[in-house]
Amino acid sequence: MYNNYYPQVVMKFFFSYIMYLEHVSLAALGDSFYEYLLKTWLITSKNDVVARDMYFDAIEALENRGMFSVVSNGFTIVSDLKNGRADGRMQHLGCFSGGLYALTSIHAINGKSEHYMDLGKKITDTCHESYRQTASKLAPEAFRFDANGAVSSKSNERVYILRPETVESYFVLWRLTHDQKYRDWGWDMVQALEKNCRTSSGYSGVRDVYSEQPPKDDVQQSFFIAETLKYLFLLFSDDTVLPFDSWVLNTEAHPLPILKGVPTV
Fold first, then answer.
1. Which of 41, 51, 83, 175 has its CA 20 to 30 Å from the CA of residue 243?
2. What three-state secondary structure class fits 140?
3. Known active-site residue 60
4. Which residue among 141, 165, 168, 227 is the active-site one?
């Protein structure tokens, strides 16, 4: 752990040597940790001040250390930090952070509410662009920006496995802003899922989002129903369904009631 943002320590074994790689991520292997710091504070009626302080210290350090960057196209990307350096690669898993920062904005304790909302919107715009620029209108697993826009060069990055993170951010931002574009973007996603992923027995991921007729991977991930469809349902539901002042959605989109009478810790 260093500089308040709690890196993963990845051990690699090579012959008789062990190398330690300081790796910090708002995507794979690290995303839920930051989310649970905020949501632990919220679900305890803001009485878990330890979780609160850890969260705000951590997100301040993430910004100060360069996790967020604006690329030449004007989009804000969320990179992993490896040994203190941003890798310039945005993962679909990190697209939940648009909603996370938007949610942070209404609970900010440091006078940075507008900043967090602006950052959440910009991250979500970036993730939407990764959908918009593909032939299938589904987003790749990971991408970088170059002169041609959001692109994925590796075959394992060109896949879409029914992930929920972007529509999660659409949902949170719709609830907080009621900007119609988030519902419009969600409907675009529904149409892309129906066109490219639906089968006679369920929904399948696809192997190449840049193809107009992407081959299917024949796998329906468990989180598709638990999260992707749930967030789409909530996006088009009334605000009285699981209102934010009574419920917290955990990292797997399970609704948990905000607890009353929790002692301060």
1. 51
2. coil
3. no
4. 141
